[in-house]
Specification:
Length: about 350
């Protein structure tokens, strides 16, 4: 179909207009409402090319330039995301445009507070984490070192995370926490500046301390004050047994009446348990040597013999010829040092366990 001169002239004009658009320094696109929502600038020798993307109201929100920078603004025009391809940095800002998260290509991640102060910093190169003045430097997959604690003007070093952790003063561990396993209990330990343990707590509920200072009352739910003694080999000693000293300083069951070598009653019988145990340690004698807590003061269940004389509450008790048993004492014939304590419950006849109050005679 032949083209008229007018049509050809119109086509030429359109091509020329398109050439101008394609070779123009900038291009802007508008939406149906007449708002510019996309724009491109070709840039020049002094400035890179830029692409702008705007919201429906025409407010620029995405910026991309030829220098490798990508920015995103919020509805208030504040830059909240910025990626700098040249420096390899990513910055995230709060709604006011204040940078608060910083990530760079060197492996550094930082977080600032609302005052612009760096409160968290992670350095991937050195393996350090600094948070609110505490610096942690990793030493491996399961260990780390706490270097400084500026908030309290103190220095803490060597925080090891391997089934627990320990903090040292540079020379000795001062705080240790172990998770425990099938062979040992979890524990928390504190030491003095010389590295000696001064306080240890373990998963069994045990507390070991060098010095204890109380400003209030000390309340013990259990009954007596006891002390551990070695037990003579093959001695028939169990909780509730009245014991006396043997020649070795160990204890055995009593066998004689009014024995002044009496020590006390073995704790743990009936419903009473020792509230305080002194000299608690492993036996130092031959294999098989036992150590048992002997009540020296307080309430304890005691083996008694009332076959010859009934016992009433308040009666004084002494050793008997019945092994390991106490009997009612005759006040007139009881020598000094032979009294165990007082009966707290009567026993009309026979052998039994009754509560007694152990007290120095």
């Amino acid at each position: 179909m032949p083209v008229s001169d007018a049509q050809f002239a119109q086509l030429v004009a359109q091509v020329e207009a398109l050439q101008k658009v394609l070779t123009a320094a900038s291009l802007t696109l508008h939406n149906a409402g007449g708002k510019a929502t996309a724009a491109m600038s070709a840039g020049d020798a002094s400035a890179p090319g830029i692409l702008y993307l705007a919201n429906p109201t025409g407010q620029n929100q995405i910026h991309i330039d030829g220098a490798g920078t990508i920015g995103a603004d919020n509805e208030h025009g504040q830059r909240t995301v910025n990626i700098d391809g040249k420096s390899g940095q990513l910055n995230l800002a709060n709604p006011t445009g204040q940078n608060q998260i910083h990530i760079d290509g060197a492996g550094t991640i930082g977080a600032d507070n609302e005052h612009g102060q760096r409160t968290v910093n992670i350095d991937g190169k050195s393996g350090q984490l600094n948070a609110a003045g505490v610096t942690v430097q990793t030493l491996g997959a399961t260990t780390a070192t706490v270097q400084t604690l500026n908030t309290t003007n103190a220095t803490v070093q060597n925080l090891s995370l391997a089934q627990g952790f320990a903090i040292s003063n540079g020379a000795y561990y001062s705080v240790g926490l172990t998770a425990g396993d099938s062979t040992k209990l979890a524990s928390l330990s504190l030491t003095n500046p010389q590295g000696y343990y001064t306080l240890t707590l373990d998963g069994s509920g045990s507390i070991a301390a060098v010095n204890v200072k109380l400003s209030g009352d000390l309340t013990l739910e259990n009954a007596d004050c006891a002390e551990d003694f070695d037990v003579v080999e093959n001695a028939e000693v169990e909780p509730g047994t009245v014991v006396v000293l043997a020649e070795t300083g160990a204890v055995r069951e009593c066998r004689d009446a009014y024995d002044t070598r009496i020590v006390g009653v073995v704790s743990g019988a009936g419903r009473y348990r020792p509230g305080l145990v002194l000299d608690r340690h492993a036996a130092a004698g031959p294999a098989g040597t036992r150590r048992l807590p002997v009540a020296l003061l307080g309430k304890v269940y005691c083996k008694v013999d009332a076959r010859e004389r009934p016992i009433v509450a308040g009666d004084l008790l002494t050793t008997s010829a019945t092994p390991g048993h106490a009997v009612k004492a005759d006040r007139r014939s009881a020598p000094a040092g032979a009294i165990i304590g007082k009966a707290l419950r009567p026993l009309d006849a026979g052998l039994d366990l009754i509560p007694v109050l152990v007290m120095p005679s």
